[in-house]
Amino acid sequence: MHEILTIQLGQRANHVATHFWNTQESYFTYDSTQAPSPVDHDVHFRPGIGARGEETYTPRTLIYDLKGGFGGLRKWGGLYDQQISGDGAPESGKGVWDGNVVLQQDPKIKQSDFQRGLDEGVSDAHKLSTKTVRYWSDFNRVFYHPRSIVQINDYELGSTLMPFEKWESGEDLFASMDRDVDLLDRDVRVWAEECDQLQGIQVFTGGDDAWSAFAAEYVESLRDEFGKMGIWIWGIEEEQGKGQKGTQSLRTVNAARMINEMSTHASMYIPLSIPPTRLPQYIHLDRNSQWHTSALLSIALESITLPTRLRYDAQRRGFVDLETALNVNGNQRIAQLQCGMLDSEIAPLAIAPTHGSTDDRAPSRNNSTLVEEDGLELAEPSLDMNLSYCNARSTPSLAGQHDVSDHVFGAVEITRTKSAATRDEQTDEDEVTYARKRRRFAGLPVIERYQSSLEYSLLDSFPPIFSLSPGLSQCAVHASLSTASGISKRVKALQKMVSSMANLDERETLSNGLGEISEAYEDGWRSGSDEDDD
């Protein structure tokens, strides 16, 4: 089935992932008169048995958060009403102690009105707003298995005495937890063993706080355990300019460390953040609301990964297939994410025309076929938001679209619109492989394009960040994930900043590591300009 295991680390990650899971839930069809969903739910969901013996279907995910970070979400409840241990036996709560037990509990956080409305089947009566959404669980629409919930009690959410910000805090926390319980054995292995054919692991994590260090240690352990399996990391960074100057410097160094670590252990690392440049006019975003900002990130992330969970073999592509198109030179593991809306009710449709091919060996034009025509340009007009910029805080101009001088090595694009043409031709894999090799040799971008008529669902849990026509419940999306020479500029800018911010004992190692990463996006191609060279 080519399952994917998801790991969520921290508040920012859980906000983005909650939008992701809400969208996956919207693809389910419960009416026999409806056409089957094109999404294979078994990729991200697992079957099980609930507390009362009924069949359940819950996300295949692990959710880590600090004390108080789960809001009104209960580990035991909904589908699982009684506390069941890993072997299926109810937990007594007393262990080997047979004496009296005094239980002390913190006050419970009340469920949001939206959550209570879902339980009562009247969610429309409780509209969400930036004032009512306090935690990611406030707009959550799915049930989770109890094994998915992992609360970390060493730190408390929002604590000013022990903020979870420093890199060393994340390293120490992982070392402590792994020493006590062996995280992979307790949390990961049981999920992996349930899979028929695990295609990869995706990790949502903070990209510039202590969660980045926790994720770095976690991914290193995953890589030791799962070898060459695809491990994709989505690192969510704080917006530029937020926080005091000292906090911003700390985040910059953390982001640099994260990129340095992920370039070694991750199959693909995609930094995410709301860019400081002006957003399109059709977007109305409250930058102080994680509910808003995470929704914008999630719509692009969920769209670009859609090919990994499509039901039909002719369209499905796994993590490894996407990595092949992106990691052209073998050491390009950092990619940037862009997107734009295509609906006429939101934004003008602007897709670059497909040029005719002059090569009779070009692959068939299929939903998931490599676009091979010489001279093809990326469909930039509709990609009006760049959601990745590698934390290059001193170079805000780099946070927009591709610079005209950027060289694109590889890209994966998807267009989700009801008007997308459907083609029944099968892809000749040998033909596609030959096309990739020929374009690499010629220094041309390797572009893999997908089309789907499945548009993005705008649920009642999704914030009103778009200028929509009344009654519009779906929107068309164009998303792109690419490796380009512009990443080298961003990493070099980060390298210059950390050379004065990082501790003396790590400064040289970190600077050299970032230098090697930036060179990977110049290998085999030079812009002819040395203005960014040291």
Automatic annotation (TrEMBL):
Cell compartment(s), UniProt: Mitochondrion
KW GTP-binding (keyword) present: no
GO cellular component: a single term: mitochondrion
Residue span, DML1/Misato tubulin domain: 126-310
Main function: Involved in the partitioning of the mitochondrial organelle and mitochondrial DNA (mtDNA) inheritance.
Family: Belongs to the misato family.
Protein name, per record: MtDNA inheritance, partitioning of the mitochondrial organelle
Protein source organism: Imshaugia aleurites
Taxon lineage: Eukaryota, Fungi, Dikarya, Ascomycota, Pezizomycotina
